[in-house]
């Protein structure tokens, strides 16, 4: 049986293989953008994503370098017709995630 989320599956597999994340959240926001003129005629239901990645691979890298790393992993999916149209990223190291949780009072 074919997956109902093939793009998300590919993203998850590529990010997991390359970055070994301790936390990976992929949220499909495509339904929020389906009415945009750029999306007219696009049949894919997987075009807009918000991705949170916690990985030690981001250690000593600034945000732009982290984002370039992820964009590089998903280059093919982003250039494909009907592929990823928008990708919002939140990238952090395990230490940054821990500090964030402490600031939030551990509510995550």
Overview of the molecule:
The model has no long low-confidence stretch (mean pLDDT 87). This protein is of the alpha+beta class and 108 residues long. The protein has a three-stranded mixed beta sheet. The radius of gyration is 15 Å and the shape is globular. The protein is built from four helices and three strands, in the order αββααβα. It has a single domain, classed as BolA-like (GMP Synthetase, Chain A, domain 3), CATH 3.30.300.90. Pfam families: BolA (PF01722).
List the helices and strands and how they pair.
Blueprint: H1 6-19, E1 23-28, E2 48-54, H2 63-73, H3 75-79, E3 86-92, H4 94-103
Parallel strand pairs: 2-3
Antiparallel strand pairs: 1-2
